[in-house]
Amino acid sequence: MKREESPILLGVIPARSGSKGIKNKNLRTVLNRPLIYYTIKDALSYNEIYKTIVTTDSLEIAEVAKKYGAEVPFLRPKKLAKDNTPMLEVLMHALIKCEQLYSIKIKGIMLLDPTSPLRRRDDIKAMINIFLKKKPDLVIAVSQSKRNPYYSMLEINKNGYAQLVIRGNYIRRQDIPPIYDITNNCWIFSRRAILRSSRIPPKTIPYEINGFHVDIDKEDDLKIFEWFLKSGEEI
Predict the structure, then answer these.
(1) 156 assigned to some structural domain
(2) What single-letter DSSP state applies at residue 5?
(3) I need a labelling partner for 171 at 20 to 30 A (CA). Which of 119, 121, 160, 196 fits?
(4) Rounded distance between C-alpha atoms, residue 215 and residue 232, angstroms
(5) How many domains would you assign to the chain?
(6) Nearest to 11 by CA among 63, 57, 71
(7) Which ranges constitute the DSSP H helices of 103-217?
(8) CB 208, CB 142: distance < 8 Å
(9) CATH number of the domain that residue 45 is part of
């Protein structure tokens, strides 16, 4: 399918300046490249993405992003760059601004978080194909959870006693329903889901990724990512 025949899919990389766990996380150097470079490079490799933009409140991040090929058509308002700013508000702002600036109608946004930089190309291509063919409101990358609320997760009830988070009549672990962890690897939202601020809308299709992935929240995560790149292993 040629790009001009495809629904317009906007690649959005969020990178605010005020990261808490790791200072200046998006610009931290990993093998002589800033962390954000790896996600920009990945996003630019997909023909289905009309444009790859970085939404940031930082002039420094904006300059680095443009250096590596991303577009930064606007600076994100500070009110949308706080610790508690919902990501869907950031995406809605990006959608509206880009439609105005590029004179297009965006059908979907592919959210690629630079703090989850390890992605298998086959996985992302499969997610894009699912979105384009099945037209859900969200395709989300997940991994099977090692813990399961039916079997191995407890909560404390009002009497102070422990109980399973979800109670059922399961005896064998093999019989319990599979549970999945949401990853930050890739989210593909429809225009409708973004405008309705629906994080997990009814028409959500999970896509299970099986390869190694890392969400970078602390210094050790950066070391793991660097080790992985040095190892030359396949994701």
Answers:
(1) no
(2) G
(3) 160
(4) 19
(5) 1
(6) 71
(7) 121-134, 191-195
(8) yes
(9) 3.90.550.10
